[in-house]
Amino acid sequence: xxxxxxxxxxxxxxxxxxxxxxxxxxxxxxxxxxxxxxxxxxxxxxxxxxxxxxxxxxxxxxxxxxxxxxxxxxxxxxxxxxxxxxxxxxxxxxxxxxxxxxxxxxxxxxxxxxxxxxxxxxxxxxxxxxxxxxxxxxxxxxxxxxxxxxxxxxxxxxxxxxxxxxxxxxxxxxxxxxxxxxxxxxxxxxxxxxxxxxxxxxxxxxxxxxxxxxxxxxxxxxxxxxxxxxxxxxxxxxxxxxxxxxxxxxxxxxxxxxxxxxxxxxxxxxxxxxxxxxxxxxxxxxxxxxxxxxxxxxxxxxxxx
Length: 305
Prior knowledge:
mainly alpha, single chain, elongated
């Protein structure tokens, strides 16, 4: 099932139609588009051994692909992602009248358990953020981490903030553009506002006069995603945390702590910018104390008389 050879022109043309749709109408990220391209090209090379077009593929061909993927000892997650790409692709073909049925719908991928993302508890977050800045870098990093934990920002959202977002931050309501070019308004806490103000007092050391980015590097340009990851990892070590600190963990900690306090899954879904509630259900978890309280207050056989 090699993917090094170019696809037949007809196979490639249909695939290109879908990728153009995914880019221009669904606004998928480059990473998502790359994943679709990779998985669909792999599928096409396999299917082309047995049929002459995407439209000729049947359930048995999908089952054959599934068996082939399993034989390569791929993880259940990877195999299911492969099938998910095919499923979306055929939904597109049906909408465009290029296929009559979705052969993937009748094929189930291998079962797997989605592990809960690990978060920092409240004490660990406080330990991380109790930084006493001794230089400009520390002032900047504290502002970034306070803002991410305060508002549940994605790493890409944090990195793309601009200087003209400062007034929205100061007002406590920041508008960000997330996945699929969807905008959402998120609150900003007082400690994050204070930390950003402290950063703006010294930002000129790290930025040219025409630089629009809010967070900048020693090179006086926008701080990259890779650099932000490295700085947060560094602070986790310096602040004595046993857990590895990375941006996604701060976002997850934000969601978990809000959910544990409120129990409002819908509100957390909105704050995180998730399109589907099921994503939030996997991404977050209620602690046992909250579940026990809900049980005691609502279950007919548990209510106190």
